[in-house]
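Tokens for tRNA uridine(34) hydroxylase. Go.
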Amino acid sequence: MKEFNVILYYIYAPIENLVEYRDIHHQFCLDNNLLGRIIVAPEGLNGTVSGLKADCEAYMKWIKADGRFSGVEFKVEPQEGHTFKKLYVRIKKEIVHSELGVNPNVRTGKHLEPDEFKAMMHDEDVVLVDMRSNYEHSVGKFKGAVTFDMGNLRDLPDHIQEIDHLRDKKIITYCTGGIKCEKASAYLLEQGFEDVYQLHGGIIKYGLEAGGEDFDGKCYVFDGRLTTDVNSINPEVISECHVCQTKSDRMVNCANPVCNQHVAICEKCGEELEGACSPACKEHPKKRPYNGTGYYQKTLEGYKPEIAARTRKNTKKLHIVEDLGLKD
């Protein structure tokens, strides 16, 4: 029996007391042995957290008890252990970086629950549009979906012309957990697309509640797993090893931090190149030691897990300057 859970969630809800709330939130995670990455922003919360099942249950109950976040939905997956090695609770300008200038609380695409999405996804007048980055959909995507060669959601305006001819179709956007689609679908509406939907809860919820049918490959996730299985009905591997081109859905980050590209590399090539994506990266002087997973914990300079235990009087200004990227 798996004793841990990993939970994925977001909610668009205004937060005014950013520093105070971040400190309280961080302390709760410390007190309950939770690890993960949580973003606190003026527009809401976004987090992926792992911990023992009882600790995750306490965390979800605690968040929902706050009236601002009572409508939050959690995607919960059982795990053998922590999927993170550290805890970060950071203040950012947005809960998902987009620079699209839209407010999902004002207008966004129509939400489709997993069963509704499944019933509708293959209609002739429906087009699925993947709103994730190129390395994410390279390892897994829905059959027939439109994908963009973009590195970040903020690049979406550069790709709108690629679906301009589909304005008479029903557009269904999808992403990992639904958070990007809140803004992406809102942006499409702003650009004149009229019939716009989004998969509520994203790929993860579709897999958990509807079996993941017709999602090919695996879903890229932003924790130590790197990918997770979604399709329990008709799974298919669609990605190839970056090195030898054999079928492989084993995603890694290149061990050379200067490169750090996200690619599929089979276990054999991973061992031979020591986690690097090429011989040149294998010989790079800054190459990280390979532990067989291809996951490397991001280091955030100036951020300490115990920061929430400090007195706010001495750190309030530091929090704002560091987390929002402002200069003192």
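The longest strand covers residues 4-12.
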